[in-house]
Amino acid sequence: MRFHVFVIGKPKLAFARLGVEEYAARLRPYVPVELHFLKAGTPDGESRALLERSKAMFRIVLDERGEQVTSRGLAQKFGDWERHGPRDLAVLIGGADGHTDALLQAAGWRWALSKLTLQHEMALVLTLEQLYRACTLRAGHPYHRD
């Protein structure tokens, strides 16, 4: 299984850049992960770019109206996908105006980090941390505590 994280725009906030670097580095011993930063534009253009770049991958779309899961539930989903599903998982994080209906309909799974609307740089850091947490749970590493 491989993670491809597609994000509209590069993190501009210093703490977000550091968080992205930290959790991407922590993830790599567990699973290959690639970060793809796409140019910001109109919502239609951003969604088209995300769809094109994630073609043939299982799309996990961040959406505040998506399914909320626990960290253990996320680890279980990854285990199920690894056993029965796609090799490449694409996590799609939209820009300030979110995703178009066409992109949402193309999602394999819509994931809500929270019911709150999150700034996309924060969403990226939280996403990477949760991917790392799920991987450590699956590996039996003591990072996660119940």
Q: Could you characterize what this model shows?
A:
By secondary structure, the protein is of the alpha/beta class. The protein has one domain (2-138): SPOUT methyltransferase, trefoil knot domain (Alpha/beta knot), CATH 3.40.1280. It is built from 5 helices and 5 strands. The protein has helices spanning 14-27, 43-53, 71-84, 101-105, 120-139, and strands at residues 2-8, 33-38, 58-67, 88-93, 109-111. The longest helix is centred in the last third of the chain and has 20 residues, at 120-139. The chain is globular and about 40 Å long. The two termini are 26 Å apart.
Global Rg = 14 Å
| Shape label | globular
Biggest β-sheet: strands ordered side by side in the sheet: 2-1-4-3-5
Total tally of structural domains: 1
Q: Structural class of the helix and strand makeup?
A: alpha/beta
* DSSP strand count: 5
- Sheet of most strands: 5 strands, parallel
Order of helices and strands: EHEHEHEHEH
Overall pLDDT metric? 94
Strand content: 15-25%
Poorly predicted runs of 5 or more residues = none
For CATH, the homologous superfamily is named as SPOUT methyltransferase, trefoil knot domain
Helical content (DSSP H or I, runs of 4+): 40-55%
CATH topology: Alpha/beta knot
How many H/I helical runs?
A: 5
What is the CATH class? Alpha Beta
In whole angstroms, the N-to-C terminal distance is 26 Å
* CATH architectural arrangement: 3-Layer(aba) Sandwich
